[in-house]
UniProtKB/TrEMBL annotation:
<protein>
    <submittedName>
        <fullName>Uncharacterized protein</fullName>
    </submittedName>
</protein>
<keyword id="KW-0472">Membrane</keyword>
<feature type="transmembrane region" description="Helical">
    <location>
        <begin position="12"/>
        <end position="32"/>
    </location>
</feature>
<keyword id="KW-1133">Transmembrane helix</keyword>
<keyword id="KW-0812">Transmembrane</keyword>
Length: 114
């Protein structure tokens, strides 16, 4: 073993600069990641998405047609989890939103139209 005391030399500066660049790059990647995650769209075959929702205890509680002809469905579980999906004419379903604390509210007879 060498008993000499460590004395930093010129090579320490580039190493520290490299660490600073690496740290900066990783912080930048973390700052960009949430925006990338928000842009992610989850889509798939309707039957596959419906099967996955059923496995998580959800069932359809609402279905409607938007102005573009796209079916929108709300799914919910007894535990309060909920998911909104859109379904195109081609059978492709996309996740619109999901969350918790769902409460199914039925329309009263006087609120129904048609």
């Amino acid at each position: 073993m060498d008993d000499r005391e460590f004395t930093p030399g010129w090579w320490v500066i580039p190493a520290l600069a490299l660490e600073a660049v690496a740290l900066g790059a990783s912080l930048l990647a973390c700052a960009v990641e949430p925006a990338k995650a928000q842009a992610t769209v989850v889509c798939g075959v309707y039957e596959d998405m419906a099967a996955a929702l059923r496995r998580h205890g959800e069932a359809p509680v609402f279905r409607g047609l938007d102005a573009r002809g796209i079916v929108v469905e709300a799914w919910a579980s007894a535990a309060g989890d909920w998911t909104w999906i859109s379904v195109g004419a081609d059978g492709r379903a996309c996740l619109v939103a999901a969350g918790e604390a769902a409460e199914v509210i039925a329309l009263q007879p006087e609120e129904r139209q048609g």
